[in-house]
Batch of 4 targets.
Target 1
Amino acid sequence: MNVIGAIMNRRSYRGEYKADPVPRDDLRIIMEAGLAAPSGCNKQTTSLIAADDPAVLAKLRSVIDPPVGETAPAAICVLTRRIPAYRDRCFAVQDYSAAVENMLLAAEALGYRSCWYEGHITDEDDIAGKMAAILGVPDEYELVCFLPIGKAADKVSAPKKKPFEERAWFNAFPEIKK
């Protein structure tokens, strides 16, 4: 699949996954795609932990409430470090966002499905902190995203998108008609 095809076909998948394991070589390709993403001032603030051991996955899932990605045979946890870059600005959010999108596209290209779970695990109940503790993540890292990875067991459907003309323009913002 070419990159435009992966971009246009990628969907957030919240359904059941097939039990087929995700080969480590495929997980590595997906993770390498994430690490190949641009990084502000090349600070490389993003790190990744893949979980494919059923016991580790069960521990991670035990702290995710409400549950997500329960049947995925693998998952990638995205970590970040807040490192000042340019004029004391930190680009960690942009860095890991670019990495996550690259991984979602790589997963799509390899025939897998996933969903970007961030807000669900990083709110007040600190699911991400519990997941980080399970994985032995040092304090200077923050777990910010959970990506279940696997083959879709259910039909994948496209969400309704607004027309191009309502969200994209050439040369200027359109005049608003009153």
Note: The chain has a mean pLDDT of 94.
Target 2
Amino acid sequence: MNKTKLFLVDDQVLFVDMLSDIIRHRTDDLEVIGSASSGEDAIQIVPELQPDIVLLDVRMPGLDGFGVLDHLKKWNREVIVIMLTTFQDVEKAKDCMNGGASGFLLKNMSVNDLIDKIRTISRGGVVISSQIAEKIFSAEKEEKRKSEQSQLNLNEEETKILEQLSKREMEVYKLLIQGFSNSEIADKLFIARQTVKNHIYSIYSKIGYHDRFKIISGKR
């Protein structure tokens, strides 16, 4: 059996030694072929050993994980890099994934889970720790909310009210405040006119307005 060759990069030597021993004794398809305790050493040794996967600590003195990732991807775009960290840093996770990392994992996961994630990534998967993924989702949702608030010129009170609208109702509302008729809204959204009327009635009920002109004039 051809083993997947791993290279570990972490300034915590004890962590590297423990993970190497665990992989050696618990797997028969993974093999640690080398390690480095600094980013500077990693970018020198990895091209020589040419591992299949590099497990890379995000935060290190000197050349940090993101810097190493950038160097390795310039050396070989196909090299698989998994970032490991103890910090739930959303922005760093985004930077690393955009920089070509195939995984962004927290070190507090169980060893068995980490091994499973390494195998998944070795088969072409991309994995982010669930805690980080949830934070990214929440941040993107809030960013979208603020963007919509800015585009519609809403104050905080109006934003809270419109958060009650469904996705389709929000689509109808956006066209409504632009002055489109029910027929035009139906054509743009590819839905029946009666469906548009139903959505508008629901919007009126939720925002407390029952005057189409007041809604339109207030948002122009």
Note: Residues 153-218 form a domain with the Arc Repressor Mutant, subunit A fold (CATH 1.10.10.10).
Target 3
Amino acid sequence: MGDSLYENYHDNEWGVPVFEDQKLFEFLTLETFQAGLSWITVLRKRQNFSHAFDQFEYQKIAAYDSGKIAALKKDAGIIRNRLKIEAAVNNAQAFIKTQKNYGSFSNFIWDFLNGVPITNTFQTLDEIPPFTPLAEKISKTLKKEGFKFVGPTVVYAHMQATGMVNDHLVDCFRYQELLNNA
């Protein structure tokens, strides 16, 4: 990989199942900002995003007003895309609504898998799809719940990041570790 930040993320976070709502919201927010960009771009700005978005406390983000949104649009430490910033606020509101309707966002999102991660058996990076039919289904459901910037590619990236799907290559040390811990 060649980048220590990316390697550390891969080795310690990517693909590890996440069930905590706060962390699920963080990843969902970061994935929406990543849309159309490389993940390393977002990863390098992750600390700035955390600071700018109140450590991803969705209750605070849901209450952002036009002044806070305007300040975020000027924050050079994050990706200053107006639509994505507004989507983050909207998604925080939808996240809270989803929690109320399903008990937690974790219950809602993991129910698509009956709480059990999918383990793929890819041998090369070329085999990993940009999205799957399940990601399309989750994407459509999230949109019905009011979320924005949650197309199937964003959703699949979220599934990979939060361990809903294990897309580590079979010869990767993390593949076997995750399999053993499932």
Note: The chain has a mean pLDDT of 95.
Target 4
Amino acid sequence: MRAPPRIKICCIRDEAEAALAIAHGVHALGLVSAMPSGPGVIDDTQIAAIAATVPPPVATFLLTALTDADAIIRQQQRCRCNTIQLVDAVPAGTHARLRDALPGIALVQVVHVVDRRSVDEAVALAPAVDALLLDSGNPLLAVKELGGTGRVHDWALSRAIVERSGKPVFLAGGLRPENIAEAVRTVQPFGLDLCSGVRVGGHLDPARLAAFVAAAQAACS
């Protein structure tokens, strides 16, 4: 029997949502800073306030669309999250610069799964980061989609990344209580990441959150 996947709830808006997610046993919270599009954006001051309330071992993910290493370092120092989630591609050498400047801070690189080239991209990036997160955005649009689309991508490609990358992989994109068993069975990810699938009217919904956690646990029983 496989261990149940870790659960990360993204788009946390305030301390009350953080506490609700933690009470349901999630392993990580996603805090969304300025983005070109998508839901859940809050300012860095609010991110810092929420992160300060989160007890270990729950991880706090700072979602950043910044690509300049120095700007990312300054943002992490303001927000004080213990994980940086890079939602866009960054220049060569950026991961190493972040490692040097922010010891002890985990790095998670998002790969937007579009086609077979995404598998090669993920495998190439894996040695530089602590984990990969596979989402369904489109960074090639005029206004980049860097997450929060609610769309499912090709899980066969995600499974190939799990098998080849050698790093923990979080699966995101269109996950909800109704499809989680199939997602876990098909991809076998280390973790699951979702935003809209546990929300009603934009707010974290206790019933949907409980259903998702139960479904994720049952998928490995």
Note: Residues 16 and 167 are 32 Å apart (CA to CA).
